[in-house]
Design goal:
The chain is mainly β. It has three domains: 29-121, Immunoglobulin-like (Sandwich); 129-216, Immunoglobulin-like; 219-298, Immunoglobulins (Immunoglobulin-like), CATH 2.60.40.10. Helices cover 1% and strands 51% of the residues. It contains one helix and 28 strands. Strands 2, 4, 5, 7, 8 and 9 form a six-stranded mixed beta sheet that branches. Strands 11-18-17-13-14 form a five-stranded mixed beta sheet. Strands 22, 23, 25, 26 and 27 form a five-stranded antiparallel beta sheet that branches. Strand 7 (99-107) and strand 8 (112-115) form a beta hairpin. The protein binds 2-acetamido-2-deoxy-beta-D-glucopyranose (2 copies). One 2-acetamido-2-deoxy-beta-D-glucopyranose is lined by residues 37, 124, 211, 292, 294.
Length: 298
Amino acid sequence: WSDPIKLTNVSDQLSIHVFILKNHFPTELLLTVSPSWLSAAASVTLTCSVTDQSAGWRFYWYNTVPDPSNNYYSYELLPGSSSGTEQDFYIVHGQTHTAGYMCRAEREDPVFYSDSRPKLVWSAGQSVSISSLTVSPDRAQHFTSDSVSLSCEGNSAEWRVKKLSTEDRYLSDCSFSGTMTGSTCKLNSSWASEAVYWCESGSGEFSNAVNISVQDGDVILLSPARPVTEGDSVSLSCKLKSQTFTSTVFFYHNEKLIQNDSRQEFKISAVSKSDEGFYKCQHSGQESAKSWMSVQGE
Ligand SMILES: *[C@@H]1O[C@H](CO)[C@@H](O)[C@H](O)[C@H]1NC(C)=O
Ligand SMILES: *[C@@H]1O[C@H](CO)[C@@H](O)[C@H](O)[C@H]1NC(C)=O
């Protein structure tokens, strides 16, 4: 710690105004987005729940547009909702890439409106995104001692790496959990975490999103962070932090045992849709976290 802050020549005219706003908030809005992960093009249902259930609400639906320069979103009305809708849901058809939404509920008597927090729907694919996020090393699980970088690529000079923690649903950006240099976020992974990461560009775009899990245990599963394509060969391995392999290594797909011998690797020569799901491995009584492997069509 440096010296305590010293205030000199403080004017005795200094006055501080504290405003306490005693507004009555008759309602709160909760926006839910379903599904939360897109598989190919999908219809996304937005539902705006109002705690005050009385009639007379009109709902307005917005797209969120990232603005990394000030860390806020701007909002654009979705088609057909310029005069609001009576129903509290809205369906977006053919959504193919990561996007954010917001809803507003408005009433006339008494005049009042309220905005929801922004909610995202994530796409894991890269095919249709102009911007993309890559993970290095390219895997879903990492030890706290690993050095993990997340890089944004695409048509922009300005990027922000965003994080939504699975545990507390807390939305933050790279500066809270790492260091951003240019378009790369180097995670400071000294503690365990599980989160979704994606990039937001200065030109208002969202990238694909990835699940990253940082583990402080002794065993991790090495599985692809990005979706694999049908027909690809895929190898999943079990990795130990400190020990060497001494006994059987167990691999599980959706909790079903798929391999138990001395191999530290589970190989799929041509991956198919049925290989999608959660994988984990186990060695000497210690188990890795599970990770979702996503398989996309050719
Ligand atoms: C990310 O994790 C969630 C929950 O574990 C899962 O439902 C989702 O499919 C995963 N997405 C990808 C692309 O792995
Ligand atoms: C990472 O986080 C730890 C714990 O907060 C801190 O002590 C360390 O200085 C950080 N490292 C970097 C490179 O920011």
